[in-house]
Amino acid sequence: MNILDIFARKARMPAPGAALPGRSTPITEPSLHFVNGRALAGPYASGLETALFGLGCFWGAERRFWTEAGVVVTAVGYAGGETPNPTYEEVCSGLTGHNEVVLVVFDPKVVSYEALVKRFFESHDPTQGMRQGNDVGTQYRSGIYVADAAQRATAERVRDAYEDELAKRGFGAITTEIVDRPPFYFAEDYHQQYLAKNPNGYCGLGGTGVACPIGAGVAAA
Q1: How far, in Å, CA of 154 to CA of 152, rounded?
Q2: pTM of the model
Q3: Where does the secretion signal sit in this chain (predicted)?
Q4: Alpha-carbon dihedral 24, 28, 29, 33, rounded to 10 degrees
């Protein structure tokens, strides 16, 4: 199998019944956030909400959110596939269907979900399908995994407004999947807050350079 065949396979979701079997127990015990010392898996304080995003390599994606005012905890993991409790190597094989995602725990009194969705779209190129820049595979697809109908409505409204703006600049259609939130599996500890532990590490995120044209409601609420 040549390199083009490998890339093509990794950019396709595994056929039904072809995903790796995984395991019944978690691959890791979530620890403390390397930057702020809070528990990655909670329990989270009353009144906090969560968001789940996939926007390419989760090392750089996570950093885009832990620096946001109002974000209390971030963690990276896997979601959107078939294999329970996958390892990083299994996800990279393209045989789990999982996406590399960032869990964002936030205080809605400080930052709105809409503002986080805006941050999501501005932090990567959501028109590339099963890739982000040079990173190719199902694990790098653009995705918003919604917790409820309100999150879905917000995500779709921001997507539509941003797609209109991208079209004016000559970009193609947005390929971001917006689906009900699937199970989230914490990634291995060495991936958590990777760019804080490895300041010169690979980021992998670019973006379109186009600002999301959402006004009222995006600022901290």
Answers
A1: 5
A2: 0.94
A3: none
A4: -140
What count of residues does the chain have? 221
| Token reading at 153 | 């409505």
| 57 is annotated as an active-site residue | yes
What is the CATH number for 177?
A: 3.30.1060.10
Question: For the segment 72-124, what is each residue's pLDDT rounded down to a tens digit?
Answer: 999 999 999 999 999 999 999 999 999 999 999 999 999 999 999 999 999 99
Number of structural domains found in the chain? 1
pLDDT single digits (tens) 18-48: 999 999 999 999 999 999 999 999 999 999 9
- Asked, for residue 160, whether it belongs to a domain, the answer is yes
- Provide the token pair at 173: 């259609």
Token pair for 110: 């400080």
In the set 57, 92, 203, 212, the catalytic residue is: 57
Q: Would 149 be classed as within a structural domain?
A: yes
Q: What one-character-per-residue DSSP string does 90-107 give?
A: HHHTT-S--EEEEEEEE-
Domain that holds residue 59: 37-197
Q: State how far the Cα of 63 lies from the Cα of 57, in Å rounded to an integer.
A: 11
In a domain, 50, yes or no: yes
Q: Sort residue 137 into left (φ over 0), alpha (ψ -120 to 50) or beta.
A: left
Strands 177-180 and 49-55: unpaired
